[in-house]
Design goal:
This protein is mainly alpha-helical. Among the domains are: 340-468, no CATH class; 519-617, Alpha Horseshoe (Serine Threonine Protein Phosphatase 5, Tetratricopeptide repeat), CATH 1.25.40.10; 620-687, Tetratricopeptide repeat domain (Serine Threonine Protein Phosphatase 5, Tetratricopeptide repeat, Alpha Horseshoe); 698-775, Alpha Horseshoe (Serine Threonine Protein Phosphatase 5, Tetratricopeptide repeat). Helices cover 63% and strands 1% of the residues. The chain has 33 helices and 2 strands. The chain has helices at 37-52, 64-69, 80-83, 104-117, 122-147, 165-177, 182-186, 191-210, 227-243, 250-262, 278-284, 300-326, 347-366, 391-409, 415-428, 450-471, 474-501, 505-515, 520-532, 536-549, 554-566, 570-583, 588-600, 604-617, 622-634, 638-651, 656-668, 672-685, 690-702, 706-719, 724-737, 740-753, 758-771; strands at residues 153-154, 159-160. The chain has a two-stranded antiparallel ribbon with strand order 1-2. Strand 1 (153-154) and strand 2 (159-160) form a beta hairpin. Helix 5 (122-147) packs antiparallel against helix 6 and helix 15 runs antiparallel to helix 16 (450-471). The longest helix is centred in the middle third of the chain and has 28 residues, at 474-501.
Length: 775
C-alpha cells in the first residue's frame, strides 16, 4: 500500500528551515525590493494611514447621521442589553422598518468612543477608523504571505512562513492605498467593515495555523491539526459576523484554502472534460489516491480534511440559524427604489441586471476614479430590454471570468493555479452576501462591500504582473516596475482626494452629482442639507429635480411639501402629500403632515382622518398625537385635546410642547388642581425646565398659593436670567401679594430686558400709583 509522501524524505534544508516541499523563488521576478517583515509592516501601515489621515477631523456624514447621531444605543443611559436587541441603526429587530443588520459588537465600539470623548465628537471616531485600516492592512501582509507562498511550512514549528515577501508586500501595498476603501475608512459607519475584516483575517490565520499540528511531523498533506487553533478560529468567525454579516464568509475562504492549498485537492479533476495526468493519478491532486479503497483505508489527511470541514459546516449552520432567529425569522423589506434591479420581472432580465452590477463592482476596483456615496435611484438604470447595449458589458464580464476559470482548470495543480483559485475565492466569497443571489439587499452598489474583496483583486494583479515578467524580456520587468509605482502613487493621490470629500456632507454630495447626475437621492440629500442651512430656494429646486428624476420619490414629496407649507404655498403642499401617501399608503409621516396642511386649510374632518391614518400605521407616534390635540383644540373638543396631548407625553415623556399645551388649556378651563397634578408629573421627567416652572408658577399664583408660585418663578429665573416674561409675571405675583418693593424691582428688571413691551410699563405705572409715587 502506498503511503502519503512526507517532507522529510524529499525536502532540502535552506537557512536552517525546511519547507514541506521544494519551492522555487516564486516572487523573485516581481519588481519589488525584498524587505524584512517588520519593515514591510511599518511601510504598509504608514501608507494606509497616509491615504486617509486627512479625514481625521471630518464631520459625521451621510449614514453616520442615522447610525451615530440618531442612535440612542450609543448613549450611556441606554441599557447594554438593548444593543443586542436592536439593529445597527438602533431600531428594534422586529420593526417593519428594520434592515435586520445585526452588528452589536460594532455598536459597542461606538459606545466606547462616546464614553471616551464624553459625547458625540467625530474626531475620536475617525481616528479609530484610520488606525483600524492601518492595522487591517498590516494583518493582510501576513495573510498575503500565506496565500501567495503556496503554504510553505517551517519544519521545526510546522507553521506557515513568510515565504513570498515581494508578492505579499506588493499585494498589501495595493490593498492599503486602494481608493475603494475611502467610504469604509472616512465614513464612521464603515467601521463595521473594518472590524469585520480584522477578525476575519485573524480567523483565517488561526485556521491556517490549525491545519498543521505543531506536535506532528510536517507532511505533504497534514495528517493532523490543532483543534484548539481551529476552535479559536471559529470563535473569531462568530465575532466577525457580529461586527458585520459578511464575516461568515471566512468559512468559505478557509474551505477553499484547505482544499486547494493545504491538501492540494484539484476539484476541477471531477469535471467530465478533465482527464487526469499520470502525475495526478498518483494522488497528488485529488481524492482518487490508489490506496483509498474502503472506509477503513481512508488516509489520515482525508480524515482531517473531513473533520475540519465538518467543524466549518456546523459553525456556519449555527451562525445562520442564530442570525435568522435574531431577525425574527423574517427578511428585511425593501422598497423598489432601494434596489430596483432586484424587482425586475423575468429571470433572464434579472440575471442580466445582476451581472451588470457585478461588472460595475469589478470596474470600481479597476478604475476607482468613478466613486459615489450612493448608487441608487437612477444612478445605474435598469436593463429592461434584450436590445440594451449594456448587455455587451455582461458579455465582457463573462469572457474575463471564463478565461480565469479556464486557467483554473488547465494543467496540474501548480502553485500559480492554487494562488489563482484562492485569489478568485477571496475576491468572490466575501461578495456573496451582496450579490442578491441568496436574498435581496437594500442597495444597488455599496463601495464598503468591496473592502475584503479588494484583497482578491490585488492578488490577481500581482499574479498577472508576475506572468508578464516571466513571459517577456527583462526590459519588461522595468516597465512593470514603473507601472506599479505609478499606480500606487495615483491610488495614494486619489485616496487623499476622495477622503477629503468625505470630510463634510456638502462636498460629498456635490461630488456625487458629478458621478451620478441622474441619481435622485443625491439631489435629495443636497436639498435636505440646504434646507437645514435655511437655503430654502435651493432646497426647493433640488427637491423638484429629485422628483423629476424619480416621480415615485415619496420622501422628497414629503420634505418639499413641508418647505412649501412654511412658505405659505399650502395647496401645492397638500397635493404633494396626497401623492406621497398614494404611492406609499403606510407613510405615517406624510399622513401626519397632510393632516397639518389640511388643518391649516380648515379641512378639520379630513385632517382628523389623516392623523388617525398616520396613527394606524405608526401607533407610537407622539408628534402625531400632539398635532391631533392641536386640531381638537381648534375644534373646541377640549377633552379629546387633553387626551391626545397626554398620549404624546406618555410615548415621549420629554415632549415639552404637549405638556405646555395641556397645562395652558387646563389653566384656561380653570381646572387648576388637575393642572397641578399634570405639572408635577411633567416635572418628574424635566426637573430643570424653566418654561414648565413658569407655567406651574402662574397656576399657583391664580390659586393664591404665593409661596409655591414665588419659589417656581425664582427657580425658573435662576436657570434663564434673560427672559423678561419671567420677571414680568413674578412682578405681577408680588403686586397681588402686596410685596410692592419686590414687584417694582421685578418690573424694572423686565423693562431692562424688554424696554418696548407696553404691558411692563403699564403694570409698573399701576404699581407706582398704588405706592403713591404717581397721581
Amino acid at each position: 500500500m502506498a503511503s502519503t509522501p512526507r517532507a522529510t524524505s524529499r525536502s532540502s534544508k535552506t537557512n536552517g528551515h525546511v519547507s514541506s516541499y521544494p519551492q522555487p523563488e516564486w516572487d523573485d521576478v516581481l519588481p519589488v525590493p525584498r524587505l524584512h517583515f517588520s519593515v514591510a509592516s511599518v511601510l504598509v501601515f504608514c501608507l494606509a494611514v497616509l491615504c486617509f489621515v486627512n479625514s481625521y477631523d471630518g464631520d459625521f456624514v451621510f449614514d453616520d447621521s442615522e447610525a451615530i447621531i440618531g442612535n440612542k444605543d450609543l448613549l450611556p443611559e441606554t441599557p447594554l442589553q438593548a444593543v443586542f436587541a436592536h439593529d445597527f441603526w438602533g431600531r428594534k429587530l422586529d420593526s417593519k422598518t428594520s434592515h435586520k443588520s445585526y452588528r452589536p459588537l460594532t455598536i459597542m465600539t461606538y459606545r466606547w468612543n462616546y464614553a471616551w470623548a464624553d459625547g458625540l465628537h467625530p474626531l475620536g471616531f475617525h481616528v479609530v477608523n484610520i488606525a483600524l485600516h492601518g492595522l487591517v492592512s498590516v494583518i493582510f501582509l501576513a495573510v498575503f504571505s500565506v496565500l501567495m507562498s503556496g503554504y510553505q511550512v517551517d519544519q521545526e514549528s510546522a507553521r506557515p512562513v513568510f515565504a513570498s515577501p515581494r508578492a505579499s508586500l506588493l499585494c498589501a501595498v495595493l490593498f492599503a492605498v486602494h481608493p475603494i476603501h475611502t467610504e469604509s475608512v472616512a465614513g464612521v459607519v464603515g467601521r463595521a467593515d473594518l472590524l469585520c475584516a480584522l477578525t476575519f483575517l485573524l480567523s483565517f490565520l488561526l485556521y491556517a495555523r490549525a491545519c498543521l499540528s505543531p506536535s506532528s511531523q510536517v507532511s505533504y498533506r497534514p495528517e493532523s491539526f490543532s483543534l484548539v487553533s481551529l476552535l479559536a478560529s471559529m470563535c473569531l468567525c462568530v465575532v466577525s459576523t457580529f461586527c458585520k454579516e459578511q464575516g461568515i464568509t471566512v468559512i468559505g475562504v478557509c474551505c477553499v484554502f484547505d482544499i486547494i492549498v493545504v491538501c492540494r485537492v484539484d476539484p476541477f479533476q471531477l469535471l467530465p472534460f478533465r482527464k487526469p495526468k499520470k502525475s495526478e493519478e498518483n494522488g497528488h491532486n485529488g481524492f482518487n489516491n490508489n490506496h483509498v479503497k474502503s472506509k477503513s483505508d481512508i488516509s489520515p489527511w482525508v480524515k482531517g480534511l473531513i473533520m475540519r470541514h465538518l467543524i466549518l459546516f456546523v459553525t456556519g449552520a449555527s451562525l445562520l440559524i442564530t442570525r435568522l432567529r435574531v431577525m425574527g425569522s423574517t427578511t428585511p423589506i425593501f422598497q423598489v427604489h432601494d434596489n430596483p434591479h432586484s424587482f425586475v420581472n423575468g429571470t433572464i432580465l434579472k440575471i442580466l441586471n445582476y451581472n451588470y452590477l457585478y461588472a460595475i463592482n469589478s470596474w470600481l476596483l479597476i478604475n476607482p476614479w468613478w466613486l459615489c456615496f450612493d448608487w441608487s435611484m437612477g444612478c445605474i438604470p435598469v436593463i429592461t430590454s434584450l436590445t440594451d447595449p449594456r448587455i455587451l458589458v455582461d458579455i465582457a464580464l463573462w469572457g474575463v471570468f471564463g478565461a480565469l476559470v479556464f486557467q483554473c482548470c488547465r494543467g496540474g495543480l501548480t502553485k500559480d493555479r492554487r494562488i489563482l483559485i484562492t485569489a478568485l475565492a477571496v475576491l468572490g466569497v466575501p461578495f456573496l452576501p451582496a450579490s442578491n443571489l441568496f436574498f435581496r439587499v437594500g442597495f444597488v452598489i455599496a463601495e464598503r462591500i468591496l473592502y475584503l474583496s479588494c484583497a482578491g483583486f490585488c492578488m490577481l494583479v500581482v499574479l498577472g504582473a508576475r506572468q508578464i515578467c516571466i513571459r517577456l524580456h527583462n526590459t519588461t520587468k522595468q516597465l512593470v516596475s514603473s507601472g506599479f509605482y505609478i499606480i500606487i502613487v495615483l491610488f495614494i493621490l486619489r485616496s487623499i482626494q476622495r477622503s477629503s470629500e468625505w470630510r463634510e456632507e456638502m462636498t460629498l454630495f456635490s461630488s456625487g452629482v458629478k458621478v451620478c447626475p441622474l441619481n435622485a437621492k443625491v439631489h435629495y440629500n443636497i436639498a435636505k442639507l440646504q434646507a437645514d442651512n435655511n437655503n430654502k430656494d435651493v432646497a426647493i429646486d433640488k427637491y423638484r429635480q429629485a422628483i423629476r428624476l424619480n416621480p415615485q420619490y415619496d420622501q422628497a414629496m414629503n420634505n418639499l411639501a413641508n418647505i412649501l407649507k412654511e412658505n405659505g404655498v399650502v395647496l401645492e403642499a397638500e397635493q404633494l402629500l396626497q401623492r406621497a401617501v398614494s404611492i406609499r399608503a403606510d407613510f405615517a409621516a406624510a399622513w401626519m403632515n397632510l393632516g397639518i396642511v389640511q388643518a391649516e386649510l380648515k379641512k378639520n374632518e379630513s385632517a382628523e382622518a389623516s392623523y388617525l391614518e398616520a396613527l394606524r400605521h405608526r401607533k407610537k407616534y407622539p408628534d402625531c398625537y400632539y398635532n391631533l390635540g392641536n386640531l381638537y383644540l381648534d375644534m373646541g373638543r377640549h377633552t379629546d385635546a387633553i387626551r391626545a396631548w397626554l398620549n404624546a407625553t406618555q410615548l415621549r415623556p420629554t415632549h415639552m410642547n404637549a405638556w405646555t399645551n395641556t397645562l395652558i388649556l387646563l389653566d384656561n378651563l380653570g381646572k387648576y388642581e388637575n393642572a397641578i397634578l399634570v405639572g408635577k408629573e411633567a416635572m418628574k421627567v424635566m426637573k430643570n425646565e424653566p418654561q414648565l416652572m413658569f407655567n406651574m408658577a402662574n397656576i399657583y399664583g391664580k390659586m393664591e398659593k404665593y409661596m409655591e408660585s414665588e419659589e417656581l418663578f425664582l427657580s425658573a429665573i435662576k436657570i434663564d436670567k434673560h427672559n423678561p416674561k419671567f420677571y414680568l409675571n413674578l412682578g405681577v405675583l408680588y403686586h397681588r401679594w402686596g410685596k410692592n418693593k419686590q414687584a417694582e424691582a421685578a418690573y424694572i428688571q423686565a423693562q431692562k430686558l424688554e424696554p418696548r413691551d407696553p404691558s411692563i410699563a403699564e403694570n409698573l405705572q399701576m404699581l407706582h400709583r398704588k405706592m403713591g409715587k404717581l397721581k
